């Protein structure tokens, strides 16, 4: 990052303005070199026994990293194709961008959607989100059941979501295939549960419903609520 290096060289320290800029860029997982893997907000083993540290480490440092790397490579190719005014290549790159960019977007939400029990993981939602869930689904338990059924029914790899239709102010349970982000269905993602085998297989083997039943113990409803309140 040229600006930061220049500032460090000139002053030996980072000014508060530069620190804000750095923090802003980290928040969006970007740098001058492209998109970067965001830090997990907890230790790899902090979600045990619900999700093992081994799964979390592989999932974050290998799988999510691969999406980030793939996204950066696709964006470089896109820039190159655009500089050559090559629309055919630009269109061809869209599926690669959707898959890797979607993987980056989805996992960045997923890590924040979870929290260790000692940090509030599993504590039920409160306030406006709790009211909206009761209104739409009848109860939190009904919402969980709907998401568990939806997630178990995803064929192959994908995600099950609690999303918000911003125009109708309506909560909706939806699934997406592969790494399609929820925004491709016109919904704001509030809570996403990764049902790719890489998210659970080492611990739950082929029993995806057990993973879907247990994950509620570490859902960070405070994070889900804050996403809801930004748009509702
Ligand atoms: Fe994943």
UniProtKB/TrEMBL annotation:
Q: Which UniProt keywords apply?
A: Manganese, Metal-binding, Mitochondrion, Oxidoreductase
A GO cellular component annotation in the UniProt record = mitochondrial matrix
The protein's superkingdom reads: Eukaryota
Q: What class of enzyme is it?
A: oxidoreductase
Kindly list the GO molecular function terms attached to this UniProt entry.
metal ion binding; superoxide dismutase activity
Swiss-Prot/TrEMBL cofactor(s):
Mn(2+)
| Swiss-Prot/TrEMBL catalytic activity | 2 superoxide + 2 H(+) = H2O2 + O2
Q: Does the keyword Mitochondrion apply?
A: yes
This molecule's function is given as:
Destroys radicals which are normally produced within the cells and which are toxic to biological systems. Destroys superoxide anion radicals which are normally produced within the cells and which are toxic to biological systems.
To which protein family does this belong?
A: Belongs to the iron/manganese superoxide dismutase family.
Give the protein's recorded name: Superoxide dismutase
Organism, scientific name: Riccia fluitans
């Amino acid at each position: 990052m040229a600006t930061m290096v220049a500032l460090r060289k000139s002053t030996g320290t980072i000014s508060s303005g530069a620190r804000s800029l750095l923090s802003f860029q980290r928040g969006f997982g970007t740098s001058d070199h492209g998109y970067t893997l965001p830090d997990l907000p907890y230790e790899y083993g902090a979600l045990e026994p619900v999700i093992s540290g081994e799964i979390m480490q592989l999932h974050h440092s290998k799988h999510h990293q691969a999406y980030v790397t793939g996204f950066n490579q696709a964006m470089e190719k896109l820039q190159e194709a655009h500089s050559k005014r090559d629309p055919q290549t630009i269109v061809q790159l869209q599926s690669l961008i959707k898959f890797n960019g979607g993987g980056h977007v989805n996992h960045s939400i997923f890590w924040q959607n979870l929290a260790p029990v000692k940090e509030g993981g599993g504590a039920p939602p409160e306030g406006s989100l709790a009211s909206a869930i009761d209104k739409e689904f009848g109860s939190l338990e009904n919402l969980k059941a709907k998401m568990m059924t939806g997630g178990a029914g995803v064929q192959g790899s994908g995600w099950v979501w609690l999303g918000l239709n911003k125009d109708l102010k309506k909560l909706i349970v939806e699934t997406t295939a592969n790494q399609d982000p929820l925004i491709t269905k016109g919904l704001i993602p509030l809570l996403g549960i990764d049902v790719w085998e890489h998210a659970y297989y080492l611990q739950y083997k082929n029993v995806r419903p057990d993973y879907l039943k247990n994950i509620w113990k570490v859902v960070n409803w405070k994070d889900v609520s804050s996403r809801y309140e930004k748009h509702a």
